Amino acid sequence: MAGPLPLGDPAPSDGRLPVDLPLDGSTPFSAYLHIPFCRVRCGYCDFNTYTSSELRGAKQEDYAETLASEIALARDVLSDAGALRPMDTVFFGGGTPTLLPAGDLARMLERAIDAFGIVDGAEITVEANPDTVTPAVARTLADAGVTRLSVGMQSAVPHVLAALDRTHHPDNVRTAVDAAKDAGLAVSVDLIYGAPGESLTDWEASLDAALALDSDHVSAYALIIEDGTKLARQIRRGEVPTPDDDLQAEMYELADGRLAAAGFDWYELSNWARSDEQRSRHNLAYWRGSDWWGFGPGAHSHVAGLRWWNVKHPAAYAQRLAASESPAAGTERPDAKAHLLERVLLESRLAEGLAIADIPEQNRDRVAGLIADGLIDGATALRGRVRLTLRGRLLADAVVRELTD
């Protein structure tokens, strides 16, 4: 299970939005549907997920109807506020969404579309464990309107998968990808690098295997050690080594070079796509500060600068909704300074960059120094935008500190 929820103000029991919220009906709207179930908890994961022994009062077979209750509440809330809009993107994340029957996912999607509507050509993504994707599952998802499958490959090397507590067989990645393609779905594969005991040669083997899948999109994330996870405890006890920052930097450079050579362009620090059309539009909605409603236990939402998050445990989530109450546990409205910091943090990660005009005025003269240090592209800066170089991507946090401190 994840760590504690953030601190914030109490959320209204009816879920209503503040009357002074500056709603904009032209802002794109997305839906995130959290499926909090996993067969096994991976040692590095701090997401809000639960194995069967941890559910205590919640049943997976009831989950689709429970989440549909929050969809109905959201429709009423947004309609009353004059902020009801069709969805541009939908994302089923987890956990392991495909641990539920594909028909349950299809039913939740149908309820969301009935409640909000959906734009033509919307992107609808389902995350999947390779062991849980069959041709029948892929066809059911495609028939329901899903357009994209995000396959949790993580690595092609057995000892690396074992270090991450991933239980799928590497061969099942190809099976899942082929099933998705045969059903007409676009495919993304997710990789993690820097696991304990993973060498540069191991990582190269995983990249080769991922490229051989001929997917449309690749995400590659550096392993981060989160407090409270099994892996953090193992490192603290000296059972496994701490990830090597220099090795992770080499792995990132290798990934960027290999993916570029294979026709992928980076569009966000950890994401590469074969074309603009294959970029994750849902994740771009987060990075660009659009509106979204997060459904499910522990899910976070954002509408017009207001943020809120749901209670964590599936049983508490279900109890709130059964009592016709909002499952929201807390809420916050970041001030202008916090909003600006977040905008710089998120937009600077994108290949399109950040407008220099959006940097605090007193810090804009620092751009020249960052260009001199090889962290920001000079030609792009002359056109009024901050765009990270490859070296800048490796030191992105330092660039953000320089632009905001």
Automatic annotation (TrEMBL):
It comes from Microbacterium murale. Keywords: 4Fe-4S, Chaperone, Cytoplasm, Heme, Iron, Iron-sulfur, Metal-binding, S-adenosyl-L-methionine. It comes from the Bacteria. It holds the Pfam family Radical_SAM. Gene3D superfamilies: Aldolase class I. Probably acts as a heme chaperone, transferring heme to an unknown acceptor. Binds one molecule of heme per monomer, possibly covalently. Binds 1 [4Fe-4S] cluster. The cluster is coordinated with 3 cysteines and an exchangeable S-adenosyl-L-methionine. Residues 23-265 form the Radical SAM core domain. Belongs to the anaerobic coproporphyrinogen-III oxidase family. HemW subfamily. It is found in: Cytoplasm. This is Heme chaperone HemW. InterPro entries: Aldolase_TIM (IPR013785), Coproporphyrinogen-III_oxidase (IPR034505), Elp3/MiaA/NifB-like_rSAM (IPR006638), HemW-like (IPR004559), rSAM (IPR007197), rSAM_sf (IPR058240). NCBIfam families: hemN_rel.
